[in-house]
Design goal:
This protein is of the alpha/beta class. It is built from 17 helices and 16 strands.
Length: 496
């Protein structure tokens, strides 16, 4: 079996003649100048791709003449998305000082990338990376949204795989043209290869969800077998590079939560048939270790899994795997930030208490929780939020929920229903995000019944219930951060 990251350890040697020591963090400075500033755009952002972790997003002010400056620490080479009107990737090594100058007047990546200028450390590397991105983002592979949309809608899985494989010819043409015109270093060649392969994996991985959405199908009406995702298990031999952080992170996420998770679910179903009920996360970790012979990929995927538990405020879950995981995760760029994040999360949650306006409601009544909520809040307008601790988009909306509650506190009852989650992670999330209102936690059986009765296909799911107990609006578009949500609430209340 040829894993996508099979010889990634080779990157612990040298790049472009610069010896690397990945045992210590070093500062990276990214400074620059924006020509032709847009008057109302005062900020620029940098999203650093952290292998084994989520992106770290930085934002800074652009001064009156267009200058900006970022600083961040890293153990290993990485790439990062620099965003003004549009975004593009820059490549950095630990200790680099990079200077970039580009035209802020354009929203087109390909236009910016043709005129961008680099100086400082790694200027040749970034010049070559910009040339590759210019080729890719102006190619049919990136611009043919209509063609790909038709294929997603029309083709069944095997036919879509054939279609997607046919695009590899275009990828090879882009890569070959890049090699001929830019004569890039071995590092940039490997980075470009990873970039193209990850785009291929991305299209294949998200095809099932996109196909269902295009045809308005439910998951129980149409799905692919677990074996569909076997393409994530192997890859053709290509040079590996840690600087391909965006591609490696994207691949690891798909490998862990599609290939590994789905195989773990099959294993869990078999255990249930035998009348044993292991912890689901334990099955996932066990499956990861069994199916991942490559040491570095195993460390990266396990780090990402544990990091996700911390993001979910699931300290109990993290601590269940902590000691055994530390015996597997040895790379400093994974182990040390993970330990640091755990200490910070534990200290933060230890000092937090529930919001004094939080009402922990009981759901142990053996009936329909939403019907009970409507009955308990008769003649009241209800804003309903169905969420889970592991759901990133759910958690991202909580700060907006608090703002919405302040605005409509006298007119609307806010109800949060947590499903498919661990109780300890639920309590920690309530503390971390200071949720208030009527807060329900459903058991696995209650969660299953709720999803079945209301045909929930995904979360977060929101509903707005009027005084007559009728669902006036519902769906993901009703999320607290949308201005239209505020307008819909106001329309039911009868306020302008």
């Amino acid at each position: 079996m040829k894993n996508f990251l099979a010889i990634l350890l080779c990157c612990l040697l040298q790049y472009n003649g610069r010896a690397q020591d990945y045992r210590q963090e070093k500062i990276v400075i990214v400074a620059g100048h924006i020509l032709n500033l847009i008057g109302d755009i005062k900020k620029i952002s940098l999203a650093i791709n952290r292998i084994g972790f989520i992106q770290e997003s930085l934002e800074t002010e652009v001064d009156s003449v267009g200058n900006f400056l970022f600083r961040f620490n890293t153990y290993i080479p990485t790439d990062a998305w620099l965003t003004y009107q549009t975004n593009f990737l820059i490549l950095a090594h630990p200790g680099d000082s990079i200077y970039v100058e580009f035209d802020g007047n354009s929203k087109e990546r390909s236009t910016i990338l043709k005129t961008i200028k680099f100086s400082g450390d790694g200027f040749k590397t970034n010049k070559q990376a910009a040339e590759f991105q210019s080729h890719y983002f102006s190619s049919i592979l990136y611009t043919s949204w209509e063609l790909k949309g038709k294929a997603v809608r029309k083709y069944e899985p095997e036919r879509f795989k054939i279609f997607e494989d046919s695009l590899n010819g275009f990828r090879e043409n882009i890569y070959d043209k890049f090699i001929r015109t830019s004569s890039p270093s071995q590092e940039v060649r490997a980075w470009a290869r990873f970039f193209l392969k990850e785009a291929h994996f991305n299209n294949l991985t998200f095809y099932p969800d996109s196909h269902r959405k295009a045809l308005a199908l439910k998951q129980n009406e149409w799905n692919v077998p677990t074996s569909y995702y076997d393409f994530l298990e192997e890859n053709e031999s290509i040079e590996k590079s840690l600087i391909s952080a965006a591609a490696i992170s994207g691949y690891t996420n798909k490998y862990l939560y599609h290939y590994i998770r789905l195989n773990a679910q099959e294993k869990l179903r078999n255990e249930i048939k035998k009348k044993t009920f292991p912890v689901n996360d334990s099955i996932l970790v066990q499956t990861l270790l069994e199916r991942t012979p490559n040491k570095l990929l195993r460390e990266i995927a396990l780090t990402q899994f544990l990091n996700d538990l911390l993001n979910q405020s699931d300290l109990e879950g993290f601590e269940r795997f902590r000691l055994s995981a530390y015996s597997i995760i040895h790379e400093p760029f994974l182990r040390e930030p993970l330990q640091r994040k755990y200490r910070q999360a534990k200290a933060e949650l230890t000092n937090l208490t529930l919001n004094h306006n939080a009402l922990l409601a009981s759901s142990s009544y053996g009936g329909d929780p939403i019907a009970k909520i409507i009955k308990d809040n008769a003649s009241k307008i209800i804003y309903l939020d169905i969420w889970a601790t592991w759901c990133g988009p759910c958690r991202e909306e909580f700060p907006y929920s608090l703002k919405l509650q302040k605005e409509f506190s006298n007119d609307v009852v806010f109800v949060f229903i947590c499903i498919d989650s661990e109780k300890s992670a639920y309590i920690n999330a309530l503390k971390k995000y200071q949720l208030q209102g009527q807060l329900y936690f459903l058991s696995p059986m209650e969660s299953s019944l709720l999803k079945k009765n209301y045909r929930l296909e995904g979360i977060p799911h929101y509903a707005l219930i009027n005084k007559d107990g009728e669902i006036a609006f519902e769906g993901y578009d009703l999320k607290p951060s949308e201005n239209s949500t505020r307008e819909k609430i106001a329309s039911i209340i009868g306020k302008k």
